[in-house]
Amino acid sequence: MLVDESTGEILTYESLPYKHGEDFPKTVFLSDVRSVDDMEDFMKHMVDKRKIRGSNTNDLLHFFESCLGHKVLKHGLFGHIEGMSVPQYRLLDSLGKIVQYKNVIMTTRKDLCSHLKCRDDNLMKKLRLVDPYIKIYTQDAGIRKGEIKILINPKFFYIYDYDLYDLSRNEAVKEWYGGLIRAKT
Predict the structure, then answer these.
(1) For the residues of 55-113, what is the DSSP string, one character each?
(2) What residues have CB less than 8 Å from 53, skipping those under 6 apart?
(3) Which 3 state secondary structure label does DSSP give 151?
(4) Cα end-to-end distance, the chain, whole Å
(5) Where on the phi/psi map is residue 165: left (φ > 0), alpha (ψ -120 to 50), or beta?
(6) Cα(150)–Cα(99) distance, rounded to whole angstroms?
């Protein structure tokens, strides 16, 4: 806008398109994470790392001990309880150490093999050991080639914001077992 300073008269208007001073934060959903880069973007834009809380590290151990207790009792009441072997416990405990957010592990196959101390051609065989407790997504499910996404049962490992931790974890557990409950009826 041009103004005549002696009279205060507005001589011309100059119109410019409005530009907001800040960019809106990028919105990324955890369900849309298909690569390690997506996971990094999600953690960078959507998670305040100062406010997250990890699972009680004893949740898996308590479940494992209860499985051992039910096995020792050999009572008919406990016949339908699922069991967990020592190798399954060790593998789940190892996987739990690399959970990034909620119950999700998003990593390269090479890094996962290094963490689990196995070769790439044996990775899926090793993960099949804990098949009832994890869900695996690979290139067939839209994950980038050479990477793998693993969801662990949220009863064992869960990382979330302190304020909504219990609510979010309970919903995740219901969602995890929801398909099993519906399938039996």
Answers:
(1) PPTTHHHHHHHHHHHHHHH--GGGTTS----HHHHHHHHHHHTT--BBTEEEEEHHHHH
(2) 159, 160, 161, 162, 165
(3) strand
(4) 72
(5) alpha
(6) 9
For residue 140, the one-letter residue type is: D
Tokens of 21: 């001073």
* Count, residues in the chain: 185
Specify the DSSP class assigned to residue 21: S
- CA 104 to CA 160: how far, in whole Å? 11
Query: Can you tell me the distance from the alpha carbon of 97 to that of 90, in angstroms, rounded to the nearest whole number?
Result: 11
Q: Residue 124: helix, strand or coil by DSSP? A: helix
- Whole-structure pTM value: 0.76
Q: What is the pLDDT of residues 10-44, one digit of tens each?
A: 877 777 777 766 666 666 788 889 999 999 989 98
Q: Which residues contact 131 (CB under 8 A, 6 or more apart)?
A: none
Distance CA 120, CA 113 (A): 6
